[in-house]
Structure formats: structure tokens, C-alpha cells
Specification:
CATH class of the largest domain in chain A: Alpha Beta
Oligomer: heterodimer
Structural class of chain A: alpha/beta
Distance between the termini of chain A: 42 Å
Mean pLDDT of chain B: 81
Strand content of chain B: under 5%
Number of strands of chain A: 12
CATH class of chain B: Mainly Alpha
CATH superfamily of chain B: MetI-like
Number of helices of chain A: 11
CATH superfamily of the largest domain in chain A: P-loop containing nucleotide triphosphate hydrolases
Low-confidence stretches of chain B: 1-22
Chain lengths: 329, 307
């Protein structure tokens, strides 16, 4: 078996707060193959973004307490800060949620897109700018040579997100982490950005980790899906499997809470009762059991492990471990 | 490679500028500059300060061409001459020409003021950037030091420092700056704490930028507007402090003329030679007023928090 491009093993990241230690990422393991698109879904505050930031070692003020992040077999949680800076922006690039704040308002857009080139490849400003303009054109910015001279506030949200993607692509990284890249955009622009990400994945062969709370986005984009809850992976597998046969009640509830066009009129939405638990004070046993419709006595006692429940599907649940199907209850 | 034509184009909202890609990019600086230029009082005050500064810089030329006197040369026969000819603004008790001394005094006063601004901004900005960016124990340490400096009563510090160091333009600027930098440091730290939270700092770090680059290339330009505002509003105050110290004999020492120490002796002759008080006093008044008006205009134009 070949080594995966990115291999995350038992990653744990904590934040020290006045209320106690927050286990934002609690033993997360997954692999990413070259050219693959992986979706990570979950509610707000379940550790998706911290997982991504921890891979980049940008989790400050959080601390990575244990685990490995192996990029092509090399554990990047151990490399020096200088080596890590070379990896950031050269081998792994990241796109952020809010394109309105993710560009520096005082610099021209083209210069910002060119910055990774200036940092890593020692290109002259003129050459770097030429490359930046080329990339801006490729991500669909009209009149890129002129637009590169504009400031971020002259760009629309969708254009800024395109510019951010261009910035991520300047050094042709192997991994692109997109942290909720479409959340702050309106729906038509969302579709365009997702198209763009799909094209980037296809044309550049960049493996993509797509973090989102939008299940529709995952269904349309990702080959594999990871579902996170309270800092842990609760289910993972091929997207089609996970969506067709969810093996964790959380995934099941998430899928059921999506509004459907073919529902009866005035059908109330099936929201998940309650809120995600405080990460300082997790419930005993399975963290989801207080909100779970399928819970059995054991769920409040023992923490379920991630187990193989199908050909490639993993789930951490006592109920489905016995082979039970989750049905509308 | 990716084919640009296959990508969806973004629909630009209909605007009169549509298709016009040649309009110049409006940076924050351009916009602020335009706003400043539109403020007439601010422009007038700025021009006045500029003229005063030019006169001060060109002081030797002025004394050669206009007044024909040396600022420290005494003409004891001509003491207490009222304004007229050849002493345009009169003379003092030692027969020194008031106008010449005012012109040379402007050198000292404006020089000390600019030097003070540079010193307190440099130190304050550095401390504020470091404290705000690195946070944690460094922030605690630096900010407690600032608290200590801000808690010392300024006038006692001035008196002590003036005794310890023989005041000249440089030490005086250092003394005044030692009180002023704390406020700048707090201001910058606060702004850094807010700018640091914005995603572009994280985004820049995610492309592999070093701390130094983040601080100098990305944070500093974002705190520059408030620095410009702090500098222009501080000048008037610094001139007043400097004049007060000179007046009390703690600043620039005679015979070097400064606006403040010209007032020191003039006080005794107020009733029979009033011009000795009026001219330096009015000069200080006008300069401080112009600085404050200009500072306000700059704040209105540049302060990002006022938008």
C-alpha cells in the first residue's frame, strides 16, 4: 500500500481557557489521497476549522497535544517553524470563510496574490505580478491585468474568494484546505466558486479538503465525507454511502434536518433538538447521546469507538455497531 | 491548464462605470488625501505650519536679508526699543532683536516638537506592535511598563530629567517623548489586537510569512492611519509643553532663543515693554492653534474609526 498524501493520526488540539481545557480536536484520524476531494461536515464549534488549522500548525492559541500529521510520510507536527513556513503556501494552501476580511485592505489585490511567490520562490516583483495576473485570469477575474491593480474593497465577495483561490494556487500546492469557502457568499456565487474549486481539483490535481456545514455542497463536491461532532469524527466513508445509509444518528439527524422540495407544504423542519455540548464539559459516554433519538442505556456510559460498519464506512455508535439500520423514529 | 473560457464569469452589477476598466484605483490613502484637501480650515492650518517650518529652516537667510541681526548679538544701547525701524518687532532688555529671535526660536521649538513626535511614535509603535502581536507575557510586561510611565506625574519627571541631563534640543525631545510614548503604545496595541483578529493575518500566515513580515508589511500599514492622527494631534500639545518647560527654565537654556524662554524674562517687563510678551505669546498661540486645527482635519480624513 502506498503512503497517502496526507495522513492525520490521532490529532488532539486543546485550548486552555479560564473555564478549563477545551478539547477542540479530540483524536481525529483520516487520510487524504492525491487528487482527492474530502468533505468535513458538522455543526459550528465541532472542531472542523481547528482540525484544518492544526494541520497548518496555525491553531494558536490552541496547542497540539498529541498526534501526527504526515505529509508524504513526513510528520509536519515535528518540523521546525522555518520548515513549516516553507510547507505553508508551497505544499498546503488554505482558503478562508470570509473573503471580506481575508484580504489585507491596504494592498493591491495582485500584490497579495503574488505574495507567496515573493516569499517562496524568490521571483522578481514583475515576474511574480505577471504570474499573479495569469492566475487571476484563470480563476475567472475579468480584465485581470487591470483588476490586479485594484484594492480588495473594489472586489465583490465572490471575486475576492476567487482571488484567494488564485493566491492559494500560485505555488501549485498539493493540498488545498477550503474552510467554509462559500458560507459568506450568496447562492449563485456559491455555485460558481464550487465549480471553480472542482475545476482546480481536476486541472491542477490538487487534493482538496472542503470544510463546510452545508451538506448539499459535500454531496455535490466530495468523494469522501467525514462527519465531526464535539471534536471527534463520528462517521466517515464514501459520500454516497454516508448519505444513503448514515450509520451514526448525528449524520442521520443532519440529513433529516435538511429542507426538501418534495416535502409536504408547511411540514415543520426536523431540527436536531438542543445544542452541541460545551467542549469543556462533555457528556459521559457518547457526546451525542443527550440529543440522540436512538440512544440505548450503554450510550451514556461508554465512549463508542470508530468501527467499520460497511465496506469503507466507519461510524462511532453503539446502536449501529450491532448492524441496526437507522429508521425514522 | 485551466481554460478561462470554461469558467463562469462574474456578473458585475450594472453601473455607469461598466466596461470602463481604466478608472484609477482609489486606495485608502488617496481617499483620505482627497477628504483632507476638501477641508479648507485644515488646509489653511497645514499651509501656515508649513510656512512657519520653512521660515524656521531658512532662519539664517531671513536674519541676513530681512532683519540684518544676529539672534544672540546684544545691542545694549538699543535695549527696550519698541517695534519700528530697524528693530521690526522691538528689542529686549539686552537689545537683542525680537523678530530674529522669534525666527531662530521657531527652529528650536518646531525642531524639538518634530523630534519628540518621531521619538515617541517610534518607541510607542514598536512597543505597541510587539505587545499586541505577541500577546501573553510580553504584552503584560510591556503594558505594565507603560502603566508605570503613565503613572509618573509628568512635571516631576521633567524637573528631574532637566536636572540630570543638561537640556538641549535632543535631550529635551527625549524627555518629552519619554512621557508621550506610553499613550502611543497603548493606542497601537489596541489597534493591533483588533487588526490581528482579521482573517487576512491568518491568511498571510497560511502562505508562510514570517512574524517580522506580518508585523512590518501587514500590521504596520493598517495602524498607520491612527499613527498619523496621533502625530498631528500631538504636535500642538508638545509645543505647549516645550514652551512651558523653557519658560520655567527647565528647557532650552539662554542665550539660545526659544519661544518659551523668550517669555521668561519678558514677564518682568510686561508693563513697560509689552511687545516682549505679546510677540512670542501670539506666535505660540497661533502655532498651537494651527497644529490642533490641522490635527483635527487629519483625524477627520484619516481615522478609520470615524467612517
Amino acid at each position: 500500500m502506498t503512503t497517502p498524501l496526507l495522513d492525520v493520526q490521532d490529532l488532539r488540539t486543546v485550548f486552555d481557557t479560564k473555564e478549563g481545557t477545551v478539547k477542540a480536536v479530540d483524536g481525529v484520524s483520516f487520510q487524504l489521497e492525491a487528487g482527492e476531494t474530502l468533505g468535513i461536515v458538522g455543526e459550528s464549534g465541532c472542531g472542523k476549522s481547528v482540525t484544518a488549522l492544526s494541520i497548518m500548525r496555525l491553531q494558536r492559541p490552541g496547542r497540539i497535544v498529541s498526534g501526527k500529521v504526515q505529509l508524504k510520510g513526513r510528520d509536519i507536527t515535528k518540523v521546525s517553524d522555518a520548515e513549516m513556513r516553507e510547507i505553508r503556501g508551497q505544499e498546503i494552501a488554505m482558503i478562508f470563510q470570509d473573503p471580506m476580511t481575508s484580504m489585507n485592505p491596504v494592498f493591491r489585490t495582485g500584490w497579495q496574490v503574488a505574495e507567496p511567490l515573493l516569499l517562496h520562490q524568490g521571483l522578481t516583483k514583475v515576474k511574480a505580478m505577471a504570474r499573479a495576473v495569469g492566475l487571476l485570469g484563470k480563476v475567472g477575474i475579468p480584465a485581470p491585468a487591470t483588476r490586479a491593480q485594484d484594492y480588495p474593497h473594489q472586489f465583490s465577495g465572490g471575486m475576492r474568494q476567487r482571488a484567494m483561490i488564485a493566491m492559494g494556487l500560485t505555488t501549485a500546492p498539493q493540498v488545498l484546505i477550503a474552510d467554509e469557502p462559500t458560507t459568506a457568499l450568496d447562492v449563485t456565487i456559491q455555485a460558481q466558486i464550487l465549480d471553480l474549486l472542482r475545476n482546480v481539483n481536476k486541472e491542477f490535481g490538487t487534493a482538496t479538503i472542503l470544510i463546510t456545514h452545508n451538506l448539499g455542497v459535500v454531496a455535490g463536491m466530495c468523494e469522501r465525507t467525514i462527519v465531526m461532532y464535539a471534536g471527534k469524527i463520528v462517521e466517515s466513508g464514501p459520500t454516497t454511502e454516508v448519505f444513503a445509509h448514515p450509520k451514526h444518528p448525528y449524520t442521520w439527524s443532519l440529513l433529516r434536518s435538511m429542507p426538501r422540495l418534495d416535502d409536504e407544504l408547511h411540514q415543520p423542519l426536523n431540527a436536531i433538538e438542543g445544542l452541541p455540548p460545551s467542549l469543556v464539559d462533555l457528556p459521559s459516554g457518547c457526546a451525542f447521546h443527550p440529543r440522540c433519538q436512538f440512544k440505548i442505556e450503554r450510550c451514556s456510559r461508554d465512549v463508542p469507538r470508530l468501527n467499520l460498519v460497511g465496506d469503507n464506512q466507519l461510524a462511532a455508535c453503539w446502536v449501529t455497531q450491532g448492524g441496526a439500520e437507522l429508521k425514522r423514529g | 491548464m485551466l481554460d478561462p473560457t470554461s469558467l463562469p464569469e462574474i456578473e458585475l452589477p450594472g453601473s455607469p462605470f461598466e466596461g470602463d476598466t481604466s478608472r484609477p484605483a482609489q486606495s485608502f490613502w488617496n481617499e483620505s488625501w482627497e477628504r483632507l484637501r476638501a477641508n479648507r480650515i485644515g488646509v489653511a492650518a497645514g499651509v501656515l505650519i508649513l510656512i512657519l517650518a520653512l521660515i524656521a529652516i531658512a532662519a539664517p537667510i531671513f536674519s541676513l536679508v530681512l532683519t540684518h541681526f544676529d539672534p544672540t548679538r546684544q545691542h545694549l544701547i538699543d535695549n527696550f526699543r519698541p517695534p519700528g525701524h530697524p528693530y521690526l518687532l522691538g528689542t529686549d532688555e539686552l537689545g537683542r532683536d525680537t523678530l530674529t529671535r522669534l525666527i531662530y526660536g521657531g527652529r528650536v521649538t518646531l525642531g524639538v516638537a518634530s523630534l519628540t513626535v518621531v521619538l515617541s511614535l517610534t518607541l510607542g509603535t514598536t512597543v505597541g506592535l510587539l505587545a499586541g502581536y505577541y500577546g501573553r507575557w510580553l504584552d503584560d510586561l510591556l503594558m505594565r511598563i507603560v502603566d508605570v510611565f503613565l503613572a509618573i506625574p509628568a512635571i516631576f519627571l521633567f524637573i528631574l530629567m532637566s536636572i540630570l541631563f543638561r537640556p538641549n534640543a535632543f535631550t529635551l525631545a527625549a524627555i518629552i517623548a519619554s512621557v508621550g510614548w506610553g499613550g502611543v503604545a497603548r493606542l497601537v496595541r489596541g489597534e493591533v489586537l483588533s487588526v490581528k483578529q482579521r482573517d487576512f493575518i491568518l491568511a498571510t500566515r497560511s502562505v508562510g510569512a514570517k512574524d517580522l513580515r506580518l508585523i512590518v508589511r501587514h500590521l504596520l500599514p493598517n495602524v498607520l492611519p491612527i499613527l498619523i492622527v496621533a502625530a498631528s494631534l500631538g504636535v500642538g500639545q508638545i509645543i505647549l509643553i516645550e514652551a512651558a518647560l523653557d519658560f520655567l527654565g527647565l528647557g532650552i537654556q539662554p542665550p539660545t532663543p526659544s519661544w518659551g524662554n523668550m517669555l521668561t524674562n519678558a514677564e518682568s517687563y510686561f508693563f513697560h515693554s509689552g511687545w516682549l510678551v505679546v510677540f512670542p505669546g501670539v506666535t505660540i498661540f497661533i502655532t498651537v492653534l494651527a497644529s490642533n486645527l490641522f490635527g483635527n482635519a487629519v483625524r477627520d480624513a484619516f481615522d478609520p474609526r470615524l467612517k
